[in-house]
Amino acid sequence: MLPAPTTKVRGVSVDVPSFSRINRDEPSLVVDHLSVRYGDLVAVDAVSFSAYAGQVTAVLGPNGAGKTSTIEVCEGLRRASSGHVRVLGLDPTKDHRALANEMGVMLQEGGIYPSARPIDVVRQFCGLYGSGKTQFANPQELIDLVGLTERQKTSWRRLSGGEKQRLSLALALASQPRIIFLDEPTSGVDVNGRATIRDIIRRLADDGVTVILATHELDEAEKICDRVVIFDKGKVLVEGTLDDVRKARRTVRLRTVRPLMLDDMPENLAGWLIEDAPCDYSIEDAPQGLIAALAVWLSERGIDVVELRTGMASLEDVFKKLTGGES
Amino acid sequence: MKVSSSPFRAQLRAELQILARNGEQLLLTLIIPVILLVFFGTTDVLPTGFDDHMDFLTPGIIALAIMSSSMVSLGIATGFERSYKVLKRLGVTPLGRPRWLAAKIVTVLLMQIVQLIILIPVALLLDWQSDDAQWLLAVAAVAVGSVAFAGLGLFIAGRLRAEINLAAQNGLYLLLLLLGGMVIPFDELPAPVAAVAKVLPSGALADVLRDALVGQADRPGTSWIVLGIWAVLTPVIAAATFRWE
Fold this sequence. Notes:
The structure holds two protein chains of two kinds.
Chain A: E1 6-9, E2 12-15, E3 27-38, E4 41-52, E5 56-60, H1 67-75, E6 82-87, H2 96-100, E7 103-106, H3 118-128, H4 139-145, H5 161-173, E8 179-183, H6 191-206, E9 210-214, H7 218-224, E10 227-232, E11 235-241, H8 242-247, E12 250-256, H9 267-270, E13 274-277, E14 280-284, H10 290-300, E15 305-312, H11 315-323
Parallel strand pairs in A: 5-9, 5-10, 7-8, 8-9
Antiparallel strand pairs in A: 1-2, 3-4, 3-6, 10-11, 12-14, 12-15, 13-14
Helix pairs in contact in A: 3-4
Chain B: H1 7-21, H2 23-43, H3 53-83, H4 86-90, H5 97-125, H6 135-157, H7 162-179, H8 191-197, H9 201-214, H10 220-241
């Protein structure tokens, strides 16, 4: 077991609770041809993907893409219509009690009685895992960790949106989880709160926890995730490491002083250029030699270039390309 | 910091904390029954038909208190927990439904003990004579009545939206208060209404409590059967129809 790392939350050093470690090579979450149907509606259509210990796996997709239904099957809250799910080697429905002892869950919203105080509800949740653990999570440490020390005796209904999210994260940590499902954890959270949550998520993964992060906030996901699963219309469009997914969509950004006359340009160059805005162009999946040929052509015509940059696509670019721009 | 050593105790502690922080539930379960007992106990305006109006009133108010704790308070709290996704959140912990239900039951029982600790001395102070009371029979009546009302409260809470559930529980409380034979005798109701009132759990509980506490019931045997049927049917229906989300 690694020594408990220390993090700073609003100037106060606190120990991050230590979490169990498991085999990082075997997938700790396996979703195999999972389908979820509500009457005639197919919410999830033969979806397969995996997640690993020690990694943050971001589950992305537009509203209604099937993310929540899939995650709820993994959590044991919903039954699969067909297909299989194994979480830490367990069946989420049949082995629910055993899995619940090892799993942390952060709902997108709610889950707490409005008159309850953070310290009381965190103490309650630490106690709920009492019979399955040799040692309790420390409620005060969890409150300190998520930066709610000064608000621990304020009723839930008086907390800000970000404070509610951080309390919800503290409850997810009460199980000292080996796998944690986080649904929009940074939604409504201010900049400082986001940094705190990001730091906790990263440390969880570094300590061997499997983190499943469902979010619409692509820039947040890109900062902390290792793997990406992109959903759309009930199907998985792409799954892989963040770098693999971004590399698969290499982009070139070209900005010029004056607009290009694409009609004057040879077809083997103009055919690749996408005009994002006047004087602003991009090229996706450029073949070898294209950039050099473009640079020569621009130079020969004395067209000044403000920026010519190659690189991996951002997660947002990939997401928009795959889902048609809806996030 | 002390953490409860079992999921059940952790949940029970949370239930009691929420109860204590919700003043409106204390109003409903404690203050209103005490006010009604003191008001009608001191004014003697009810046409009870009993020699001592406290013999009619005390069992009736105890029945009202049991209804308020086991049906209204439990039902409203559970409805809001469903609405706020508290039940969904607990569903992904090791607590499990049996221990959740056990924590609810013990919370209601503790509330009822507090109700009786307050109501019975108040009734005695108002000159109620408890010499003929069969306390074990009264406890049995309270237990069976609690099951019947809890099933009814959870049935409503498990189907309706939180705000509609709140209105429905309070509306039913008022309706049963007026029709239930608790403070208004069946004889004072129009005959068709009285016929219906006698097969309601409120009327049956008040009647069996009058049998147990003062030995002056309207029809104790029938009331026990009526109450027993409610106590079997409502939990079964609630369990079959309850929607956790």
